[in-house]
């Protein structure tokens, strides 16, 4: 019964990700990561007995502990990836702001030159 409930939940998550991608509310760059996560969830739900055996093999005797450990590792990895992306975006915004300021200064200088010629 647990396997069926897990499978239904992960299939609903997969359908949600697909619908968000189709409606363009989730960008392709991130959609791929979430699609892989949803497919991995479906596979994990199908293979619960194998995951139980694997958990026992690595010394984890209570299956929910294994699931929580994997979830926490996934979330940490996702946070690191998002932090890197945020850092890159911050650098790009800084560069664009500096380039904009330089272009604005050049434009004002050109306007002063043009205005100076028109007054003569």
Fold and architecture overview:
89% of the residues lie in helices and 0% in strands. The longest helix has 57 residues, at 63-119. The N and C termini lie far apart (89 Å). It folds into 2 domains: 1-46; 62-120. Helix 1 packs antiparallel against helix 2 (28-46). The chain is elongated, with a radius of gyration of 26 Å. The chain has 4 helices and no strands. The chain is mainly α.
Give the termini distance in whole angstroms. 89 Å
| Total beta strand runs | 0
Total helical elements: 4
- Taken as a percent bin, the fraction of beta residues is under 5%
Order of helices and strands: HHHH
Give the uncertain stretches in residue-range form.
none
What's the main sheet like? none
Structural class: mainly alpha
Give the number of domains: 2
Helix content: over 70%
Q: Give the mean pLDDT.
A: 90
Shape summary: elongated
Instruction: Give the C-alpha Rg.
Output: 26 Å
How are the SSEs placed, and which strands pair?
Blueprint: H1 2-22, H2 28-46, H3 48-57, H4 63-119
Transmembrane segments: 6-23, 30-51, 57-80
InterPro entries: DUF2304
Keywords: Membrane, Transmembrane, Transmembrane helix
């Amino acid at each position: 019964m647990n396997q069926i409930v897990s499978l239904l939940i992960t299939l609903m998550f997969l359908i949600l990700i697909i619908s968000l991608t189709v409606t363009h509310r989730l960008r392709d760059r991130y959609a791929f990561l979430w699609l892989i996560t949803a497919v991995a969830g479906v596979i994990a739900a199908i293979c619960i007995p194998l995951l139980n055996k694997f958990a026992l093999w690595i010394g984890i005797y209570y299956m929910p502990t294994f699931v929580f450990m994997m979830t926490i590792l996934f979330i940490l990895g996702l946070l690191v990836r998002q932090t890197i992306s945020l850092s890159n975006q911050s650098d790009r915004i800084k560069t664009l702001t500096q380039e904009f300021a330089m272009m604005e200064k050049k434009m004002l200088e050109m306007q002063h030159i043009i205005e100076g010629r028109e007054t003569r």
